[in-house]
Design a protein that fits this description.
Helix content: 25-40%
Largest sheet: 3 strands, antiparallel
Order of helices and strands: HEEHE
Distance between the termini: 26 Å
Structural class: alpha+beta
Shape: elongated
Strand order of the largest sheet: 2-1-3
Number of strands: 3
Strand content: 15-25%
Radius of gyration: 17 Å
Length: about 110
């Protein structure tokens, strides 16, 4: 029987660029949605893909399901997670956009 060990994460490269304000903000959005996501007790093969906008006012709009999983419970749970995360954190002061277009995938594990 073989044994697998977890490898140590790579050391950060001095050549890596720091995250932009937009990337940092989207990481916060992801964390906020993940806190609200309650995965239903089903396994799906196809991820749910939602598209929406976050306005500078922190509100979501234009939410649409770009791809459904084929399972009503999973699809509606994904929509509920995004809607319950609303309003999102404020935009960083150095982010000049009026809104951000977001594509978010919910993948069954």
């Amino acid at each position: 029987m073989s044994e697998t060990q977890a490898s140590k994460p790579p050391e950060p490269s001095v050549h890596e660029k720091p995250l932009t304000s937009e990337q940092q903000y989207l990481a916060m959005v992801q964390a906020t949605i993940n806190e609200k996501w309650i995965a239903p007790p089903v396994t799906v093969e196809t991820p749910v893909v939602l598209k929406f906008r976050i306005a500078k006012s922190r509100e979501i709009s234009n939410i649409q399901m770009d791809q459904g999983s084929g399972n009503y419970l999973y699809d509606s749970g994904a929509l509920r997670a995004v809607n319950s995360a609303n309003p999102f954190p404020p935009f960083p002061t150095d982010l000049p956009k009026e809104y951000l277009a977001v594509t978010y995938r919910f993948i069954s594990k």
